[in-house]
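Cross-posting from the modeling subforum.

Setting up a comparison between two proteins and wanted a second pair of eyes on the formatting. Protein 1 (sequence, then structure tokens):
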Amino acid sequence: MYGATYALPLGTDPEVMAKEIGNPTTTWLVAREHGKIVASIMGTVEPADRMGKLQGLVVDPEHRGGGIAHHAVGRLADVMLADGDVDSVYGTARTTATAPQRICLRNGFHALGIFPNLRKAERHETMALLARYRDGVLENRHPVHKAPASLGPLLRTVHETVGLPEFPELVPETETTSAESSGPIELIDAPQFVLRHFESTMIDPVRRFYPLHKPNVLLAAAGGEYQVYAHLSRKDGYCTLIGATPSPHDVAPHLDKLIDELNGFGAFYIETLVPLYSFHELSTFLGHGFLPVAMYPGMRRDGDAWHDYVVMARTMQPLDFRGLQIDAAFRPFAEQYIDLWTQKFLNTNGVFR
């Protein structure tokens, strides 16, 4: 198990871990030496989305450096991709050391981005995103012909890192508007009710696509104009926006207020997943302070091809990259994010006269 400061119950709560072991969509591998467990890693599959996630890699300190972690990651990825029911497997690697990132990279995973201030352990910590694919996925992606210009550095980095052929035309994003201050936003914090409501309301598979994430809170405009499903972890301030009704377009003018309210509810890092083909939606999030932190090529299967997705994120904590240790493969992702953040939040044009 991880130390007590680790934010995720998967590595600290025996009940959660026992439940996961019994989950039919979970594969949990352990390594033993003389009967003692010296390493552990688990993978979870979302069958409907044809995706898997690697997490919880831990090696006993006395057994590190001998290749156990490398073998565990490679073995589990092989198992999850073997039967053709999973198109890609992804994982997030910590940035307190480069070893976790390089273990994945050497096992055929591609660097896809970083998540600044994603999780809070002893402090808010940046994580790296990596994914490995089944043969044929990256070669059969739906084309995207245009993308917001602000995404240019991220898209170029992913295309170079992964080796993707086509590149969309970069077009200035559309301007966004904010609505007049509306009434209060109500937070419904009843996980089982929220999940049932989500399952019965969000029936469009495209609009509810957020692999391996389930909503546990519902934010609703008091006047009934919109509802937003989210997953909020107050322990570490992590929040994902998973779906909205009647549609994201109805929420867009109220995003600033929604973000302020979420911050008050304990969210310090907020992210959402947007299809690369959705130019207007990407422009909207860019206009409301969200920045592109990662791109996941070939993420969702649609017919005989796959759609690309962009992770848009907004952090309410001051950026602190002290102690950040990243492999060279992730440096361009960090640089593009810092450049965009500086342009967005430190632009001093017009301040000094």
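Protein 2 (same layout):
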Amino acid sequence: MPMVSVIIPTYNRPRELSEALEALTRQYYQDFEVILLNNNGDSIIPVVRAFEDRLTLIHVDLPENHHVRARNHGVTIANGQFILLHDDDDLLLPSHIEESLGDLEAGADLTYADAELFTYRWENGRRTVIATEPFAYPYDRDAMKQDSTFIPSGSMYRKSLHQTLGAFDEDVFNYWDWDWILRVGKDHLVLHPARATVLYAFNPSGNHQSAQQDAARKVYFDRLVAKHELPTTEMKNFHIVQSERRARLRETRRTFDGQLTESE
């Protein structure tokens, strides 16, 4: 069976990370390793110890908080034929890896699923879901140039893509994922099946940033626009994209019951 390398950068989210790892223990397909990249945050040794008997874990402490560089490092030490990208506060439903692997074995170079966006509150040290909604839009590379509906968390692809395309672009920082899907989609087969198997943590208050943060982000956005000659000049956070596109939601398979996994 092919090996999958799950790459998870993390920074000071031990409770969320524990939930993500618990969800991985429940995957139907279990031939995978998990590469945990601690981005110069607090120690994650307690989390690693809680799961080291149930998952194949590789734990790396990095000297800086740079999530793109962390992912690139994860790729360089990955043993798998396939890479699965994973954010530390998201979760995967049990069929996710098995079905994604089926997409790649059928010929795709990269596959990514629809998501269930969930809002939550903290209760007794864990997250309780308040509401969910689908994030489900067809893949269209031309539309992707206007604004990105690609959620990298849960996406799986052939590691060999990096031999052709190189590493994730650290120079566009916040927009590394948008850059990646545009680069892959240019000459490779991208599949986006209508199944919502990624649980994506969605802050209902939106991404409020300071003027200084917005100015820094604009530098990376302008680099992305110039690199791909994009037709857009407007920076949009994820909440704006979702609100503008809701009318174009597609039908997707939804099986999430509203209960997040609880770490034992």
